[in-house]
Design brief:
The complex is a heterodimer of chains A (214) and B (251). Chain A is α/β, with parallel strands linked by helices. Chain A has six helices and 13 strands. Chain B contains eleven helices and twelve strands. The chains are: A alpha/beta (214), B alpha/beta (251).
């Protein structure tokens, strides 16, 4: 069987090397690119990213990537946003005033709210457990067959707040409050955590993503 | 409840992981990539590579080690020691590091914290403080605990947060390498003075030291070195013991 070709979108933001390393470790063919043709021809596409939402969106615009991303998603092939790359899937973010996002998932990105009496801190830098919100939600997704309450690595201060409950793939609890840890809408997935930095379980999640490729 | 991160600290000199006492009298303990892999497979939560001599001799040879380690180690990796410019930070991130720990350069030019956190995000920038007890308080040291700066460590931690650091790594030079327990008072003071996560480093010599520190200070992370470098305990043994004590760590 030929190797699955995964394009990691290069828009000048974040640590992409570890995502490429993880995909190569899983025997995928990788390319770091912002070339529209290469993105459209890939079997799977990952939108990485750390840092600020506004910068992320500005960079997507300046690299002319917005319409390419929409066009790719319309092909029905799997797409995964990681961390900021997941947040960018939403309609908008309240980080540094309101900034418009890709609008692929209805809802907003908001600052994490924690119960201060727990003594927890922000940013949320921790391994933490992901939970399936409703039974069988993980079927046919990047989290299929992943054990409930698996620990994955988070580092963020903002989180997605989808309007439609059914777009929430996983939740996580921090500072006594639940937040959205992963999203899914058709062929579009998003993970607030870093699967490429989450040890064996993270690699299993990326492997699932590769396996979703038809 | 956050899970206290257990972090392997690998001080590297000339391609070897070394370990000293009070950051001095260095002894070779092994190959950095092999050790990183071993700790990763045994369940460590994060790895910090510190270039033990870079800021003294103005060179940096850690990038290629990070590059190799990142091909096989899929947990967060921090690089520190000898990072002097945004350009160095860029190189470090490109080699695969997730976070950069800044000490000497931050003292010389605090603006680097501000600039780097604006470009790469606060989550990427760790303010590293090497503190020694002086009279009633603690002073920040640079160049691996050799040079005093006259800067109060607690004030400096607050300043680092204001400048945009996303975490504080606090190393007690007095306790470092002694295996005599953490400077819990220092960790507590730092944690009380900032609202960002704090990583405690220096002094872990027994499972009890780690247990006590979690119970007393509950830091975001605990850096360990001698304990695992000298095979006193394996990472999985430490984790098991903490879990048996009902402490919140990743299994």
């Amino acid at each position: 069987m030929s190797k699955k070709k995964i394009a990691v979108i290069d828009y000048g933001i974040g640590n992409v090397q570890s995502i490429l390393n993880a995909l190569e470790n899983l025997n995928a063919e990788t390319l770091l690119t912002n070339n529209p043709e290469e993105i459209l021809n890939a079997d799977g596409v990952i939108l990485p990213g750390v840092g600020a939402f506004k910068t992320g969106m500005e960079n997507l615009i300046s690299h002319n990537l917005i319409s390419v991303i929409h066009e790719y998603i319309n092909t029905g092939k799997p797409f995964l946003g990681i961390c900021l790359g997941m947040q960018l899937l939403l309609d908008e973010s309240e980080e540094f005033g309101n900034t418009k996002g890709l609008g692929l998932i209805k809802g907003k990105v908001k600052k994490l709210i924690i119960d201060e009496t727990t003594g927890e801190r922000l940013p949320h830098v921790s391994w933490n457990e992901i939970k399936e919100p409703v039974k069988d939600r993980w079927q046919n997704s990047i989290l299929e067959n992943i054990p409930q309450f698996s620990d994955v690595y988070f580092v963020h201060s903002f989180a997605a707040s989808p309007n439609n409950e059914e777009d929430i793939l996983a939740t996580c609890n921090y500072g006594n409050k639940d937040f959205c840890a992963a999203v899914k809408k058709d062929n579009v997935f998003g993970a607030q955590f870093h699967p490429e930095k989450s040890g064996k379980i993270g690699l299993t999640i990326l492997k699932k993503f590769i396996d979703l490729i038809k | 409840m956050h899970k206290t991160r257990l972090i392997a600290r690998l001080d590297v000199k000339n391609e070897f992981v070394i370990k000293g006492i009070h950051l001095e009298g260095l002894r070779k303990v092994g190959d950095p990539i092999e050790l990183a892999k071993k700790y990763y497979l045994d369940g460590i939560d994060e790895i910090v590579f510190m270039d033990a001599v870079a800021s003294l001799y103005d060179r940096n040879n850690l990038f290629h080690i990070i590059e190799k380690a990142c091909k096989e180690v899929f947990i967060p990796i921090t690089i520190g020691g000898g990072i002097r410019s945004v350009n160095d930070i860029d190189k470090a991130l490109r080699s695969g590091a997730d976070k950069i720990a800044l000490n000497t350069q931050a003292i010389k030019n605090p603006e680097i914290i501000k600039e780097a956190s604006r470009i790469y995000g606060s989550q990427c920038i760790i303010g590293s403080i090497e503190a020694k007890r002086t009279g009633a308080g603690w002073q920040a040291y640079v160049d691996n605990g050799r040079e005093h700066t006259g800067v109060d460590a607690i004030d400096w931690a607050k300043k680092l947060e204001d400048l945009g650091a996303g975490e504080i790594l606090i190393t007690s030079v007095d306790k470092e390498g002694t295996k005599k327990g953490f400077d819990a008072e220092l960790v507590k003071k730092i944690a009380e003075s900032v609202s960002i996560p704090v990583i405690a480093s220096g002094g872990a010599g027994s499972l009890n030291d780690i247990r006590e520190l979690i119970l007393n200070c509950n830091p975001g992370g605990i850096a360990i070195a001698s304990l695992i470098h000298y095979n006193l305990f394996s990472v999985s043994e430490i984790k098991r013991e903490l879990i048996n004590n009902n402490l919140s760590v990743r299994p």
